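Here's what a typical entry looks like (ABC transporter ATP-binding protein):
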Amino acid sequence: MSVNVENLSVAYRSRRGDVTAVDNVSFSLADGEIMGLAGESGSGKSTLGNALVYLDPRMKTTGGKVSVDRRELPIADNGAMRHRRMTEVSLVPQYAMSALTPTRKIGRMISDLLKSHHVKDRAAVMTELWRRLELIGLKEDVLSKYSFELSGGMRQRVTIIMSTLLNPSLLVADEVTSALDVSSQRAVGEMLTEFRDRGYIKSAITITHDLAILAQIADSIAIMYAGRLAERAPTSVLVDSPLHPYTQALLNSLPAVGVRHDQVTLTGIPGRPPSLVNPPTGCRFRERCPFAFAKCTETPPFEEIKPGHLVACWKVSQENADLAGAGQGLPVREKV
């Protein structure tokens, strides 16, 4: 198992007290797995990704642990994490295209990166860098350019190359396609899978609100809502047979390929996500859920309904228990 996250909780410090943005989240990634992490804005998905690298001083880990290649990461200690970044875990941050220093050439930034991590055989790393630039269709002269001389897609690819140059076990890619045109989105997505296939990274978490992108590149998808995981399954299973009402609602809000706008009416999700300053008890989706019942005032367990398919929903658990007692499997659930 490449990555293991156990009962991770992360809070932000605020004047009104700590705001728990990630609440008791657990999951694991196998070697070679790309997991998509999706949800509405404010669901906690970017906080979860950042917590694995710990770059934001406003955050504090209030519980849980993270292990990569069976070694626990000191995620509560930013100083200790400095020596583990880029080699064990690395982040392509949200708004990554703005993360490149505009007053330094790309080659100089890469040189500084190697120096800060005390890379001894820099010649070998630079040879590998040129190989990777060629792989993704960039010429060596990109190293002599400033970031503002590059297109958005080129800057994004350079950022990903820098984040993976030391072959981290885990890459966290936060909204890496959100500011790109369709062709650049596809190129970046193919770049992530190519780097995984070539062993430049062992596994990856791709964070986005765009389920269509995840359907193309992710092996599994996890859906996050109000700081907690609502559902996780292999990509094809989650897209074709979602079980959690929130996942169903998310998918129903997406336009189908090839369907004209006058042929179908998209349905939004009524209501709004709860405040994490004072979140509701029980299932946090219950006030927006058309299937909510009395049991939903209690917190549902995030449990495996089928092999590899985990859901936190009392109604799904009840249906599964009833069908198991009758000797049947859980049927494909109709979308909301």
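The longest helix spans residues 182-197.

More examples are in the samples folder.
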